[in-house]
């Protein structure tokens, strides 16, 4: 009996000790969670940001449209619950990728993001997250397009699963009301001028006819500028475009390759392609900021930089959460 209780006591003691050790282990790791910070990789991979910048530049030289993709990616990844590179995951037998949903229509150049990741892995294997590469490539892509340099923090880790099933709660559709758009962005801390500035990203790139034909057929949306209608009809001659055909209209015919405030002048002239673009000038809440950004590129850049920063810091995985993916299109457990 005595030896039994001694045994019991010993087991109890060692359990207490073990759990203390375990807790210490966890709290040590938790105290290492510094969250996002500037130059997170200074010690662990000092070349990381330079390698990414170089790759973005090289890719931009070969394929200018890669920069559009880096800019669009930060919206599609970060606005959906977390900047965790969930956007980059491929479909698995069990889950649909975000890339394959309707809201992601037209996203491109993912293989070149893999090119950047491979270059970073060659320097420092297993250190730099895909989420940080996604965010930093957006930062450097914005510069390539003539936009502002926006200092952004790093230290994000990669999510393990697709967020496809909640995507539509967070990403507005092309024809969403302004109230809906403002509410979605407000939920992640981006105010009205921030939203108006972010939509200025539609100063570059393209929109496929499938997203536009409802403004042209069966009858033309009277809000559209007649000169622009002519161009749009020329580019989108079929009421039901073949979704596989590469038929599209450039978002900003004036300066299609440059991130500038010409977008706002387009919107004011009835040349905004998407219904959300056009609505920005119709709605009282956003109209004032459209006019102000049309007048001042500085003001546009200032608000754009502020909004991109907030977007880039949306609910990141840090510390011991998530993982550092080995390749950006597959979570580690599937890859290894
Ligand atoms: C109300 C919010 C938004 C809606 C409904 C929306 C919708 C769209 C649609 C339908 C396209 C055309 C895709 C295609 O046909 O290929 C597009 C293109 C694009 N969007 Fe947005 N967008 C929104 C906000 C944003 C934001 C916040 C950014 C970045 C900060 C962004 C960046 C881009 C870029 C760069 C393109 C051109 C992509 C390319 O040419 O590859 N968009 N967007
Ligand atoms: C928006 O457009 C989609 C097609 O892209 C359509 O299914 C949906 O009904 C439209 N929504 C509104 C509010 O008009």
Automatic annotation (TrEMBL):
Span of domain Plant heme peroxidase family profile: 35-332
Catalytic residues (UniProt): 76 (proton acceptor)
Chief place where the protein resides: secreted
Any Gene Ontology CC annotation: extracellular region
GO-annotated molecular function: heme binding; lactoperoxidase activity; metal ion binding; peroxidase activity
Listed CDD domains: secretory_peroxidase (cd00693)
Record-listed substrate binding positions: 172
Subcellular location: Secreted
Pfam family, one: peroxidase
InterPro entries, alphabetized: Haem_peroxidase (IPR002016), Haem_peroxidase_sf (IPR010255), Peroxidase_pln (IPR000823), Secretory_peroxidase (IPR033905)
Cofactor field: Ca(2+); heme b
Residues the entry annotates as binding Ca(2+) 1: 77, 80, 84, 86, 98
Keyword vocabulary terms for this entry: Biological rhythms, Calcium, Disulfide bond, Glycoprotein, Heme, Hydrogen peroxide, Iron, Metal-binding, Oxidoreductase, Peroxidase, Secreted, Signal
E.C. no: 1.11.1.7
Function: Removal of H(2)O(2), oxidation of toxic reductants, biosynthesis and degradation of lignin, suberization, auxin catabolism, response to environmental stresses such as wounding, pathogen attack and oxidative stress. These functions might be dependent on each isozyme/isoform in each plant tissue.
Family membership noted in the UniProt record: Belongs to the peroxidase family. Classical plant (class III) peroxidase subfamily.
Protein name: Peroxidase
Annotated source species: Amborella trichopoda
